[in-house]
Design goal:
This protein is mostly helical. 86% of the residues lie in helices and 0% in strands. It is built from nine helices and no strands. The protein is globular and about 55 Å long.
Length: 226
C-alpha cells in the first residue's frame, strides 16, 4: 500500500505541474487546445488526489469516490477536446459541446448512484471496477461515451494528423493516449504497481506532444513573419 500511496502522490504532483505549465501557455496565447488540455491534466491530477486521500484514510469514504467517478470519467473527454481543437479546430466547438453533455450525464450518475460500500475499502479495485461499486446506468453511460469519443479523438486523431503532417509530436500524443488505456487495463486486473506508472508515462508523453505542437506552431509563425 505504501508504494501505491507514493505512486498516487507522484501522479498528482506531475499532473498538477503539467496543468500549471499548460495553463501558462494558454494565458500567453489563448489557444483553445491549451485550455482544454489544461483542464484535462487538472482533472487527472485531482482524480489522483482523491485516490491519495482514500489511501490515507484506508479506503474511499463515499463523497471522495463520487468525485473520483466524475473526474476520471471526464479526463479522456477533455483530452479528446484538446486534440480536436489542435487538429480540426473548426469542429472543436461541436465536439466540446458533446463532451460537456456527456460530462453532465456522468455528473448526475456519479452523485445519484448508490455505492457498494464494502468495495470502497480497496482503493485500486474500486477505481478500476467502477461498474461494480457504482452500478448505475448513467455512470456506465458517462464513462462509455467520454471514453469512446475522447479516446478516439485523442489516439486516432493524432495518428491521422501524423499521417498527413509527419510531425512527431502527433505520435507522442497518440502514445500518451495508448498509455492511459493501458493504465486502465492493468488497473482492472489489479496490477496497482503498474497502474500509476502507466498514467504518469501517459501524462508525460501527452505533455511533450502538446509542447512539441507549440514549438512547430511558433516556427511556422516565425517563418510567415520573416
Amino acid at each position: 500500500m505504501g508504494v501505491l500511496w507514493i505512486a498516487a502522490l507522484a501522479t498528482f504532483l506531475i499532473g498538477a505541474v503539467m496543468a500549471w505549465q499548460l495553463g501558462k501557455k494558454f494565458a500567453q496565447k489563448h489557444r483553445p487546445y491549451a485550455l482544454w488540455w489544461t483542464v484535462s491534466f487538472t482533472l487527472a491530477a485531482l482524480a489522483a488526489l482523491t485516490q491519495l486521500i482514500a489511501f490515507a484514510q484506508g479506503g474511499f469514504a463515499g463523497w471522495d469516490y463520487r468525485t473520483y467517478l466524475l473526474l476520471s470519467s471526464a479526463v479522456p473527454g477533455f483530452m479528446g477536446a484538446g486534440t480536436v481543437y489542435l487538429i480540426w479546430r473548426r469542429f472543436g466547438n461541436w465536439f466540446l459541446g458533446g463532451i460537456l453533455l456527456f460530462t453532465a450525464i456522468a455528473l448526475v450518475g456519479a452523485f445519484t448512484t448508490s455505492l457498494t460500500a464494502p468495495l470502497l475499502k480497496d482503493v485500486l479495485a474500486a477505481s478500476a471496477t467502477v461498474a461494480k461499486v457504482a452500478p448505475a446506468a448513467l455512470v456506465t453511460l458517462g464513462y462509455a461515451l467520454l471514453g469512446a469519443f475522447g479516446g478516439a479523438a485523442l489516439i486516432l486523431g493524432a495518428l491521422y494528423s501524423y499521417v498527413r503532417s509527419h510531425q512527431s509530436y502527433n505520435l507522442l500524443i497518440a502514445l500518451g493516449g495508448i498509455a492511459f488505456s493501458i493504465a486502465d487495463t492493468v488497473g482492472q486486473f489489479g496490477h496497482g504497481v503498474l497502474f500509476f506508472p502507466a498514467q504518469i508515462i501517459g501524462m508525460l508523453l501527452l505533455f511533450f506532444g502538446v509542447a512539441g505542437s507549440n514549438e512547430v506552431a511558433a516556427r511556422q509563425q516565425a517563418a510567415k513573419s520573416a
